[in-house]
Amino acid sequence: MEISNIVHSEKMAAELAEVYIANIYGQKAAERQKPYLVTQVDGYWQVIGGMHKRQLGGTFEIHIAKDDGSILQLIHSR
After folding, report:
1. 35 upstream amide cis, omega within 30 of 0
2. Which of 32, 45, 46, 65 is most enclosed, with most CB atoms within 10 A?
3. CA geometry: angle at 37 spanning 34 and 50, to 5°?
């Protein structure tokens, strides 16, 4: 049985991004960048962390495959 479109909603993409970011950069970093900007692009979700006043460091951008939830790209700005 073929399963596709596992990550089917903006909410699910944001939740999955939070799990990935928390595992890589820590839970505080994931929380600090909320709310996330989530955009549907062809076969993936683009999730970008929010930047707040007086926040040190940059924000993340992660591309998550709709089909299986895998990370297609992950970058972090300064």
Report:
1. yes
2. 45
3. 40
